[in-house]
């Protein structure tokens, strides 16, 4: 069996049905092998798009997402979204073509130390140099991506290993299991006791528990433990507009449990002005480095730590739950109310479109369509979308703060869930990164609905410059007043329409869905800073 056939059959054996890719010389043998394995290749227009799509696939399905890129410049183009996937804790496998092993050190075409490039961004990265180990390498990579704190992995595949006989004719029957890290019973008992004694406990969870089965388990856990649970996946941290005024109640909590949530800038590094001087803090994490960081930053305020897979630890805490020492009903209600806080005045009715009203109109639409999936991407407009739009399934641009992947996220979500109505809200700055992927959407019949909030500028940077340097020091933030993103999408074979008045918005959404084509609604709107709902200055933010 050829090395390329071995890799693709190993993927199929692990349940892989779809690969996101841009073609290139060194991965042509793998493309050929996908035909006989009946694996679908979603062929994109830029390598970064393939990685963004693999990220979204994993977030929506809970399965491994697979991207395949060619050597050197190909994999280099995929580095930025690899960072985003790492921060989002998305299990993806990045396969890359590579120069031949037989030409190592000879100046081969596109020779590059890919492992050195991807190692800082992945849980595991390896270049295979022996074709007989290809299956075990694929298995190890996927297991590493899916275990404990999930994240991306990378496998570099030299061209000569792909094109010659591997010496392996039959794949092993057994797929190796990787047991999750189980919490120590003493740690579970200690944390359970702290939770039982607390008057105002609060559990903060990281991105991997914010979606799919993890999201559902949190609702049950909150009731069982009589403790509010806050999901955090935005670089704006506790000042994420979708969390309302949650920063205020965090400061009031007497026990904070970081369940797979990194202690970092999004939590103000655990400083006393964020968590509260009297708060006791618990860290549960499968990454020993995160526990050590907490020990270093928190000192005596760290009441307990637990090294474990967070899902396993959460189940253990539910089993060990005890009756709280006091009634926490009022506290639970206070936290819930804070998360729903949207305490800014509604904008006055004007001929122009305010981003809040635009997002509220889209939110009404999302409540009316079957199986909605919401994708939010962008600087300031992305935050308005997160604040005023919701859906059972949501993808945002994540902890990395990188923008531009939204179109790719939406396409992959629609491919993963063809029965869903996938709606993307993005700024006009964001739209420019991967607008050409509407060609991919047309070819793949991924009828997404993209709403471009067009304020004619890079608004996040505009806000920073205006606030820091003054109105007369604005530079490099303006975008074209004549750009027709809708017309560009129509030119690529999709549906496009321009909206200049609010009363045009609802009909435009209906027309976009009825077109059964990938659609772009270009909305001329006012530019406003992202909303902040906290009534004090407590909290952390990337801006």
From TrEMBL:
One of its GO terms (biological process) is L-valine biosynthetic process. Residues 377-523 form the Thiamine pyrophosphate enzyme TPP-binding domain. Pfam families: TPP_enzyme_C, TPP_enzyme_M, TPP_enzyme_N. One of its GO terms (cellular component) is acetolactate synthase complex. One of its GO terms (molecular function) is magnesium ion binding. Its EC number is 2.2.1.6. Its cofactor is thiamine diphosphate. InterPro entries: DHS-like_NAD/FAD-binding_dom, THDP-binding, Thiamin_PyroP_enz_cen_dom, Thiamin_PyroP_enz_TPP-bd_dom, TPP_enz, TPP_enzyme_TPP-bd. Keywords: Plasmid, Thiamine pyrophosphate, Transferase. This is Acetolactate synthase large subunit IlvG. The gene is ilvG1.
């Amino acid at each position: 069996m050829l090395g390329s056939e071995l890799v693709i059959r190993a993927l199929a054996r692990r349940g892989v049905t779809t690969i996101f890719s841009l073609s290139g010389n060194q991965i042509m043998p793998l493309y050929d092998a996908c035909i006989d394995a009946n694996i679908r290749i979603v062929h994109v227009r830029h390598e970064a798009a393939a990685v963004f799509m693999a990220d979204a696939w994993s977030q929506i399905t809970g399965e491994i997402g697979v991207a395949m890129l060619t050597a050197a410049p190909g994999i280099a183009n995929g580095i930025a979204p690899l960072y985003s996937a790492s921060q989002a804790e998305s299990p993806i496998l990045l396969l890359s073509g590579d120069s031949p092993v037989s030409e190592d050190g000879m100046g081969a075409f596109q020779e590059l130390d890919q492992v050195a490039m991807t190692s800082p961004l992945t849980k595991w990265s390896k270049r295979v140099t022996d074709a007989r180990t290809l299956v075990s390498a694929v298995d190890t990579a996927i297991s590493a991506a899916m275990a404990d704190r999930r994240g991306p992995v990378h496998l570099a595949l030299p061209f000569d290993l792909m094109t010659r006989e591997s010496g392996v004719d039959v794949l092993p029957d057994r797929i190796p299991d990787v047991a999750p890290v189980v919490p120590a019973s003493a740690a579970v008992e200690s944390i359970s006791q702290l939770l039982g004694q607390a008057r105002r406990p609060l559990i903060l969870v990281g991105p991997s528990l914010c979606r799919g089965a993890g999201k559902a388990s949190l609702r049950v856990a909150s009731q069982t433990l009589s403790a509010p649970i806050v999901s955090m996946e935005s670089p704006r941290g506790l000042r994420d507009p979708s969390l309302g005024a949650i920063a205020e109640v965090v400061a009031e909590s007497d026990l904070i449990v970081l369940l797979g949530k990194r202690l970092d800038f999004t939590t103000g590094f655990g400083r006393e002005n964020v968590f509260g001087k009297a708060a006791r803090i618990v860290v549960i994490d499968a990454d020993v480095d995160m526990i050590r960081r907490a020990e270093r930053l928190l000192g005596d305020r760290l009441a307990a730590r637990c090294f474990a897979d967070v899902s396993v630890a959460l189940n253990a805490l539910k089993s060990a739950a005890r009756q709280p020492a006091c009634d926490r009903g009022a506290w639970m209600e206070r936290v819930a109310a804070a998360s729903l806080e949207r305490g800014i005045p509604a904008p006055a009715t004007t001929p122009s479109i305010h981003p809040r009203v635009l997002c509220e109109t889209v939110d009404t639409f999302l409540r009316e369509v079957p199986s909605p999936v919401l994708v939010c991407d962008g600087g300031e407009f992305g935050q308005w979308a997160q604040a005023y739009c919701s859906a059972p399934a949501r993808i945002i641009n994540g902890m990395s703060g990188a923008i531009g992947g939204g179109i790719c996220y939406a396409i992959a979500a629609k491919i993963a869930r063809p029965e869903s109505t996938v709606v993307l809200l993005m700024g006009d700055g964001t739209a420019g990164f991967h607008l050409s992927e509407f060609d991919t959407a047309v070819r793949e019949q991924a009828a997404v609905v993209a709403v471009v909030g067009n304020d004619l500028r890079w608004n996040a940077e505009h806000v920073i410059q205006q606030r820091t340097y003054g109105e007369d020091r604005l530079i490099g933030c303006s975008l074209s007043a004549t750009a027709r993103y809708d017309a560009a999408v129509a030119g690529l074979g999709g549906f496009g329409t321009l909206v200049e008045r609010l009363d045009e918005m609802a009909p435009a959404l209906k027309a976009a869905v009825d077109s059964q084509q990938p659609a772009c609604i270009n909305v001329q709107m006012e530019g406003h800073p992202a909303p902040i709902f906290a009534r004090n200055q407590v909290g952390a933010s990337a801006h």
